[in-house]
Amino acid sequence: MIEIERKFLVTSSDFIAESYSKHEIAQGYLNSNPERTVRIRTKDDRGYLTIKGKSNASGLSRFEWEKEIDCQEAKQLLLLCENGVIEKTRYLVKVRTHLYEVDVFYGINDGLIIAEIELNSEDEIFEKPQWLGDEVTNDERYYNAYLSNHPFTTW
């Protein structure tokens, strides 16, 4: 499956009042190589294994494969991950027909807030809420795999 995604910094906490759901996430990388990342994630009481390919030239699209796994097994696999497990709270915010996933990072990436939106095409038009800041889609520093090895708190 091809994932088309754009990322933005968030300028205020106003999105919290607009959110309809939130989830606690911990994720680590068995492989953080940009050519192919292999991620383990727990989201509340569920576990996931995800493999992502390299982004295309625009930085907007890439292959993604995800499979739900047993949460306890995911927690065990997190112990095998590279250093820098990412901890965040994800808020889901509906804006017209689109869904924004807003991640509030804590732990080693405390202070960082990123909003992501998945699209059906790279040129799809979408509404930008007032709390959305600069786009960072093509800035690899904001990829979770990069943040696991180069925490935001050390920038």
Explain what you see.
The chain is mainly beta and 155 residues long. 12% of the residues lie in helices and 48% in strands. It has 3 helices and 9 strands. It has an 8-stranded antiparallel beta barrel with strand order 1-5-4-3-2-6-7-8. Strand 3 and strand 4 form a beta hairpin. The radius of gyration is 15 Å and the shape is globular. The chain starts with a strand and ends in a 6-residue tail after the last helix. The model has no long low-confidence stretch (mean pLDDT 95).
What oligomeric state best describes the polypeptide chains here?
Answer: single chain
Estimate the global geometry from the Cα principal axes: globular
Range of helix content: 10-25%
Give the beta-strand count. 9
Low-confidence stretches: none
Portion in strands: over 45%
Counting DSSP H or I runs of 4 or more residues, the number of helices is 3
Label the structural class: mainly beta
Can you list the strand order of the major beta sheet?
1-5-4-3-2-6-7-8
> What is the residue-mean pLDDT, rounded to a whole number?
95
Helix-strand sequence:
EHEEEEHEEEEH
The termini sit apart by 33 Å
- What composes the largest sheet? 8 strands, antiparallel, barrel
Q: What Rg do the Cα atoms give?
A: 15 Å
